[in-house]
Amino acid sequence: EPEVTQTPSHQVTQMGQEVILRCVPISNHLYFYWYRQILGQKVEFLVSFYNNEISEKSEIFDDQFSVERPDGSNFTLKIRSTKLEDSAMYFCASRLNGQVSGTQYFGPGTRLLVL
Amino acid sequence: AQSVTQLGSHVSVSEGALVLLRCNYSSSVPPYLFWYVQYPNQGLQLLLKYTSAATLVKGINGFEAEFKKSETSFHLTKPSAHMSDAAEYFCAVSERAGGTSYGKLTFGQGTILTVHP
Predict the structure, then answer these.
(1) Residue B98's pLDDT is what?
(2) Mean pLDDT by 10 residues, chain B (117 residues)
(3) Which residues in chain B are contacts of A48 at CB distance < 8 A?
(4) Cβ atoms B47, B38 nearer than 8 A
(5) What is the DSSP string of B20-76?
(6) What single-letter DSSP state applies at residue B96?
(7) For residue A13, how many other CB atoms are within 10 A of its CB?
């Protein structure tokens, strides 16, 4: 069964460093998402991406964050200058088509620790 | 803005007992509703969803949920818990088509289900 994959599973970085989190969505899916979950808190929406552009973003997704689909298979989340409060589990998700009721399929997550 | 509340961050049941995980939403228009499960070291997996057909929705692994508009609830149940049901469960909503959302999910805080022998 097709699945969303994410690499790395764990990432430790120093404050102020750039990190890139990678996701490979399900191959025929068209809508892509990033969510994050700070330890002990809710899963929060960060950004949605369709047709090579951001379709919606939350207030968390400030200028330090960017997303890209560089090669038609990968979907990346870049944090330019990490802060301590960026430590969280980051989930990528993909959805087949434009049906808002459609299922989002989630990857296993990348646990980011900023020291 | 939509919000989701899951009552009880931890629920503990005996194997074979009824599982009831509560979810209430806050939205002016009934949204689409989802239950996801997360097993250790895995991603979130869809259990079931309500999209405006039958109000009683059956999902995988024997789970079901009932949409009650009057109570703004979408509680998850399973008649008989199994040890393998131990996981974290998330209720989520998304705005209906025609709104300003592109399908983003708003999650509750999650409920950890423990099943003991």
Answers:
(1) 58
(2) 90 97 88 92 89 88 94 96 96 76 87 96
(3) 102-104
(4) no
(5) EE--EEE-SS--EEEEEEE-TTS-EEEEEEESSS-SEEE-GGG-EEEEEGGGTEEEE
(6) P
(7) 16
**Do residues A43 and B4 make contact, with C-beta atoms less than 8 angstroms apart?**
no
Q: Give the pLDDT score at B95.
A: 79
Cβ atoms of B91 and B77 closer than 8 Å: no
Helix ranges (H only) for A32-91 are: none
Count of CA atoms in the C-beta half-sphere (13 A) of A35 = 24
CA distance B85 to B88: 9
CB contact under 8 A, A100 and B106: no
Asked if A56 is an interface residue toward chain B (Cβ–Cβ < 8 A), one would say yes
Contacts of B108 in chain A (CB under 8 A): 42
Do B94 and A102 touch, CB atoms closer than 8 A? no
Q: What is the pLDDT of residue A8?
A: 96
Is B102 within 8 Å of A109 when comparing Cβ atoms?
no
| A105 touching B (Cβ < 8 Å) | yes
Per-residue pLDDT, B51 = 86
Token pair recorded at residue A115? 């020291």
**At B92, which amino acid appears?**
A
Amino acid B101: pLDDT? 61
